[in-house]
Amino acid sequence: MKPFNIGDIEINPPLVLSPMAGVTDYSFRRLLKKRGGVGMTVSEFISVEGMTRNSPQSKRMMRFREFERPFAIQIFGANVRRMVMAAEMAEEQGADILDVNCGCPAPKVVKKGGGSGLLQNLPLLKEILVEIKKSISIPLTLKIRAGFDDTDRNAVEVSKMAEQCGVQHVALHGRTRQQRYTGLADWGLVKQIKDAVSIPVSGNGDVTSVEFALEKFKETGCDGILIGRGAMQNPWLFRQIDDVLNGRDAYQPTLEDKQEVLLEFFEYLREDMPEKAALGKMKQLAGQFTKGLRGGAKFRQTLYHSHSAKEILENIGIYFDTLNKGGTYGSNEVEKDAETLDSCEAAAV
Question: Which of 102, 104, 165, 222 is flagged as catalytic?
Answer without folding.
Answer: 104
